[in-house]
Design a protein that fits this description.
The protein is mainly alpha-helical. It has a domain of 48 residues. It is 36% helix and 0% strand. The C terminus is likely disordered.
């Protein structure tokens, strides 16, 4: 099915995946904090309304303990 839109597909060469960037799909807290900070600044959320812990955890990801050790060493 064709979309009736004038779209530029030239940027598709830069696309890599839909996935999470972390090894094994491990999500880093800083990935959510960026959005929380932006939404507070934007007025979509009040300060303290949500925390990173309200949004995600890696409890069921077997890669989390391995990646957590290496992520802690990154700035």
């Amino acid at each position: 099915m064709e979309r009736a839109a004038n779209e530029d597909h030239s940027v598709l060469k830069y696309w890599e995946s839909f996935g999470v960037a972390g090894t094994g799909g491990v999500i880093a807290e800083r990935e959510f904090q960026i959005w929380l900070d932006w939404m507070v600044k934007d007025g979509s959320l009040k300060l303290g309304q949500l925390s990173r812990d309200d949004l995600f955890d890696n409890a069921y990801n077997p890669f989390a303990s391995e990646a957590g050790a290496s992520a802690a060493q990154q700035p």
